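Replying to the earlier thread about multi-chain prediction with a worked example.

Input:
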Amino acid sequence: MSDIFALAIANLTSPMILFFGLGIVAALAKSDLSTPEAVAKGMALYLMLAIGFKGGASVAAHGVDVTLALALVAGIALSAVIPVIAYRALALTTDLSRVDAAAIAGHYGSISIVTFLAMTQALQTAGVAYEGYMVAVAAAMETPAIIVALWLAANGTRSSNPNAVREIFLNGSIVILVGAFVIGLITGEAGLQSIAAFVVDPFKGVLCLFLLDMGLIAGRGLQGARHNLKPPVVGFGIYMPLIGAALGLLAGKLIGLSVGSMALLTVLCASASYIAVPAAMRLALPEARPSIYLPLSIGVTFPFNLTVGIPIYLYLAQAMH
Amino acid sequence: MSDIFALAIANLTSPMILFFGLGIVAALAKSDLSTPEAVAKGMALYLMLAIGFKGGASVAAHGVDVTLALALVAGIALSAVIPVIAYRALALTTDLSRVDAAAIAGHYGSISIVTFLAMTQALQTAGVAYEGYMVAVAAAMETPAIIVALWLAANGTRSSNPNAVREIFLNGSIVILVGAFVIGLITGEAGLQSIAAFVVDPFKGVLCLFLLDMGLIAGRGLQGARHNLKPPVVGFGIYMPLIGAALGLLAGKLIGLSVGSMALLTVLCASASYIAVPAAMRLALPEARPSIYLPLSIGVTFPFNLTVGIPIYLYLAQAMH
Amino acid sequence: MSDIFALAIANLTSPMILFFGLGIVAALAKSDLSTPEAVAKGMALYLMLAIGFKGGASVAAHGVDVTLALALVAGIALSAVIPVIAYRALALTTDLSRVDAAAIAGHYGSISIVTFLAMTQALQTAGVAYEGYMVAVAAAMETPAIIVALWLAANGTRSSNPNAVREIFLNGSIVILVGAFVIGLITGEAGLQSIAAFVVDPFKGVLCLFLLDMGLIAGRGLQGARHNLKPPVVGFGIYMPLIGAALGLLAGKLIGLSVGSMALLTVLCASASYIAVPAAMRLALPEARPSIYLPLSIGVTFPFNLTVGIPIYLYLAQAMH
Amino acid sequence: MQTFPKKRIEIMVEAPLMSRVLEILDEQGVSGYTVLPALAGKGKDGSWHRDGLVGRVGSMVQIFCIVDESRIDEVLEPLFKLVSQQIGIVSVSDVRVIRAEHF
Amino acid sequence: MQTFPKKRIEIMVEAPLMSRVLEILDEQGVSGYTVLPALAGKGKDGSWHRDGLVGRVGSMVQIFCIVDESRIDEVLEPLFKLVSQQIGIVSVSDVRVIRAEHF
Amino acid sequence: MQTFPKKRIEIMVEAPLMSRVLEILDEQGVSGYTVLPALAGKGKDGSWHRDGLVGRVGSMVQIFCIVDESRIDEVLEPLFKLVSQQIGIVSVSDVRVIRAEHF
Ligand SMILES: Nc1ncnc2c1ncn2[C@@H]1O[C@H](COP(=O)(O)O)[C@@H](O)[C@H]1O
Ligand SMILES: Nc1ncnc2c1ncn2[C@@H]1O[C@H](COP(=O)(O)O)[C@@H](O)[C@H]1O
Ligand SMILES: Nc1ncnc2c1ncn2[C@@H]1O[C@H](COP(=O)(O)O)[C@@H](O)[C@H]1O
Ligand code: NA
Ligand code: NA
Ligand code: NA
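Result:
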């Protein structure tokens, strides 16, 4: 069991996190460094395809056990429960409108796949194994939170729309994650071998370039946060991940996940969405202000998890197991 | 000689085809999954550069024989003859205008490089060798059909234009294919080694992502087909590839191609263009309706060849050889 | 010590240069072959990230010596001196306005990172080693020339602007080069290993595709040159690199660089910028005509260095060492 | 050359809302519309830039639709209802077209 | 500030036709033009979206050209001839420019 | 439906100059603006095309800004000062908006 400082150093000195830091610095320094939107979207597509496919292939290799089902159920439950807690916390500690609070809550129930990826890399570095099906759990956790958020906001104004729900469940990131997972499941080891040079070898490097871009966005988000977010809201962006992480650790312990999978479930609970949920919120809760939930999720919680959170979560997962 | 079902299964369960299927499903389910245009164009560029370069390098390695010349001549002849057959078939079985029929005919005389790539992968899986110069044949078959189509339409209205012809022969996909082929020919094995990590290793994986995108487009095309195409036209999109394939097999047999090259010539004859020819038709035959020839080529024939056609063609190539 | 013709042949028959040639031919033939802007920018980003990171990692591996500092100082000095020479040469041999001459001078004091990359490849092929810190020298040489150019133009009209200077030093290409260099320095060999499959293996291949695109642009630049550039200006685009190269060789010799690093310093002095400097000039010297300095830098000097210059510079570096 | 007066409705709206706006235009039975990508912008709800974005939130599109003067109100009504609760603006200008029957 | 009245010709045309339109504008000796990419659209000939497209067919571009009122007809004539047999539309609107000599 | 008359200022300017123009608009305190990417174009200073470009030079952007008639001159003044020494054009046209208070 490696100690927490070693984990923190290993994390902070990984090329991945350093490129993320470079992006933040460049953004704060107002450099014109930027990735074209098409390239950023292309990398996101690649990362989700690769992680989904590898997850499916590893499930095909190691087979399915009952914990897979348990992990899925736990993930869905957590994705639905966390927004309620987040909503209460915001209601108590901030003066945000019910709709804003509900929208934010939805983000924290859902997940950030990039934070998930960062943890998988940290696990590799620490030589800790994890189950491939955690990708499926990640996909399953993306949407329940959105439904709960709409329900939380409903008492306020009713502007949800049947169409929205379908769009939420068929949003691109879920389709590619689940689709690639199923394909990996079908083609198994052989399939993985045939395209490993694409989905495995360059993966870490692409993630570095992608995190450079995420750093640029997070840096801008940080600036936005400075202007639009009151301290209690910023605080929420820091302690809410820890609350989520605690729940994730407990659940992982209860259903008997391996250390690696436990760390992944933890980071899924701790992370906040900044792709699927914001898009859904613009459709279903237009009154909620993106100028609040976007900077909070991408400018505060995302960097926090990536730099401070990951080593903590991994340490605790090892300690509690 | 592997039997047809084995080939069909192997083809349908390859990551490539499964990602294509994922794309079709996502499109039909109206998911917002999509690849940015720039990324799709970038992948197309990469695939053509890689296939051209590898073809040239393998010719440099194995040397040129008379069958290369024969294959080129046969390819050009087939590309010119098939449109005439297609045109007659459409005139007999459909009520399409002369111009529409001519435009469609042009698509089927020309080729789909992606279908060609899919066959090369199927050959690899089946462990069947093929000649590198078939890429040159593919390039040579792209344009003759267009000229014939213009000639077929000419009796109707005359709107062709000298400029158009130059643009047709210098269209990007031909330039990159032929150019990369020549470069591969010049740099040979050494050149291939130096960039193999780019043009060889990740190739299959990129093809998967590209086919996901093609599936999305084909899915939309399929929907278009449902609305704009009468049954006899859809039928044409299914049986015309088989007619083309038959001719390809015969020609391959006559000029004594290897099994692999024979299968490739067959798939070239069976496939229909959806990049070079449509662009040329918009320039030279504006009266022809893209709402007919695009969905037919990309929504009907392309998926048919990819899923059903390839194993059949490969089986027949092995059987007839 | 390999002779110059061998070097020239090796250079001209490398896939890299051949793809560059293909691009030029395609552009001159007015083919519609093109790379989407986003893809071109993405490749540029990748190349700079990779070269910077590898440079930093190799410094981490081989340690820092005094020549690093000397090389940096020499590079900065050369980047500041060359524009003055270029400016005088233009004043003597052409009828360009002071502002146009100053703007052009700035381009030749700064550097072309792609030409630098081409030389690193030529060194690899020739089996000549070079120091990783030369990337830092390249980054350091990008901007001094710009300041000097503004100063040269100042006597004419004064339209520089404090903002401009900041933007010049924080321009994306410098940030990514230096940032990746520092990250490589921190993560060292281990970091390099972890993402080698991304930054090392496919590098040469990506460079080929990128040079195809550069060829397309250079070809268009060449056409622009034909119309907008008088012979004396075109001549300057040929002899100025040689002057720069001479200074680079001398400086390299004086500070005792290795053969490889000497060749790299030479090519940095010989090359002219077509990304950072033009952008800076549009901001700080709007009266200077891009229709002159862009085609000159990208249509004349860049192809010259890539095809003729590199073998000469490498030969001389070996001869003088 | 004879041209006919029409109205050009221009809608700036967040990318995720695009499909909604197009649905409305379809319901209104307009003869056609075009969507142009926007690169960056600024308004009451802050500024945005498309570069590097991964999701669709935070980038906007411009939708324009040329309609006959007579249709203008019935088309604007629902558009206004939608955009008023969203980030975005709607403007109208005069244009003349060559093929009247086309619109 | 003094401005001068001009006409803004706007042409929506399929990407493959772009070069044709620009040739026409060059022949007409207009002082300049600009091409904007379109993302998606719908018209008599169906709807289209740029995403994922590999070829140029099925995506459109917007070309606009600011010309002097006096030139309008001679410029529209050939444009109309081309676009009438293609997928696309042409519209004209009034604009005012700062530098009259520029157009 | 009630609409209010406004002015639409449209600026074509080189990509590197974009931030300058936006600074000016901010200084003028306009309520907002939008930047659209341009694909290609031609003018007094030659023609350009975005494809394959690595740097930002040689490509242009279109910036439009809807302002109240009353503000038009003070906004045009500095824009003109900037663009007159750069590659680019400025034009103004009439539009009508739904939410007057928005501008
Ligand atoms: N008359 C015009 N109509 C439309 N766009 C124009 C016109 N003149 C110039 N432009 C655009 O403005 C850019 C710069 O114009 P110029 O300064 O004349 O080179 C051109 O490249 C075009 O994109
Ligand atoms: N009424 C309209 N308003 C705006 N754009 C239109 C309109 N009609 C057609 N378009 C655009 O022009 C393209 C071709 O129109 P059409 O020839 O009618 O199919 C469409 O795909 C749209 O992008
Ligand atoms: N006055 C304006 N002129 C041009 N574009 C505007 C204007 N106001 C807003 N926009 C655009 O519409 C978007 C949303 O506006 P808003 O709802 O005010 O934030 C902005 O991000 C701009 O892209
Ligand atoms: Na979460
Ligand atoms: Na064919
Ligand atoms: Na230089």
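Chain C has 15 helices and no strands.

Feel free to reuse this layout for your own posts.
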